[in-house]
Amino acid sequence: MRAPLALALIAVVAASLLVSAQVYDSRGMAGRATPDIEVVTTDGKALTLDMSARDTVIYVIAPHTPACLDNLANMKALWNHAKGRYRFVALSLSGAGLQDDVATKALPFDVYAFRDYHDARLSSYAFGAFPSVYVTSAATRTIERAWGGPFQGRSQKDAETFFKVELPGVAR
Question: What CATH topology corresponds to 25-163?
Fold first, then answer.
């Protein structure tokens, strides 16, 4: 009796991982709407990121997580390569301690906190994995590409192809 239960549990976990991976698959996210995002600056000022202003790379982080720290070199390399073509912004789940956080200090672009991470208008982004990277088009106000987790393996190769850049990979 234990073997069928264990196999069923493994099947459920595998299926949930597959579904979760599909949510962040770049082909599944392309074309979703990109509403403006209400944010707070590191010094507490509220502002709105106008997603029709410029093509944007959004880097969603939970700054203290190892995966976000491990991905810093990739994001710096990406920014160095594509900063002329894209506006880069990092969005943190929380503004608490954001100004002094090591990960956000290391980023060469603006870092904000979500004003309301659970705002229903943001559901098309399907924020969830940390870190996540979204490339948005100002002209169409849609997501062009999205990756969940640090750039490594398949996601690193896909990002390198998309941006035409070689990334250093994760720190570990």
Answer: Glutaredoxin (3.40.30)
